[in-house]
Amino acid sequence: MRPGKTILLLISLLFFSLLQGCSSGNTDAGDTPSGSADQPVQNVTRWGGPARQPDLWGQVKTIRGNKLTVYKVENNAQNLSEEERKAQRGQMQSLSPEERAKARAERIKVSNETVDVIIPVGVPVIATGNFGAEATEVDISQIKQGDIIKLWLESKPSGDEEAMAEFVQIIQGGYGQ
Fold it and tell me: How many domains, in total, are found in the chain?
């Protein structure tokens, strides 16, 4: 075999080995369904957030500086068993983007009840995509009207008092689990 062909063969083998490694390298994001009880907590605790489920799901009505007014949101997927969540995840991945958006819209219920929330300076704000996508820390300015967010609260509102957030997660790409 000529040296040029040998080198080409070795480079090809290296390339395919790297591709195989990339496709199977990070399995922890896909192993646990995004709807499982542990996945949201794992994403949050990686960024210094509390090791508990969020206190409030909301859809941003208004944002002024570090004060949000959110509509309370109920996510019906929170009440599913782990097996039901796995089945739902598989079903969602097989749908077209339009069908997926419709299914998400049916899964959540946005109420007319609002809550005012203050996000103190220095509170972590992370953004995650759907199906357990890796989180990234973002600035509070990334929160936009209409976004679905999860809030972990320091203090819960009583009467006219505003809630104080200790951690915020923006669900990018629509209504996540």
Answer: 1
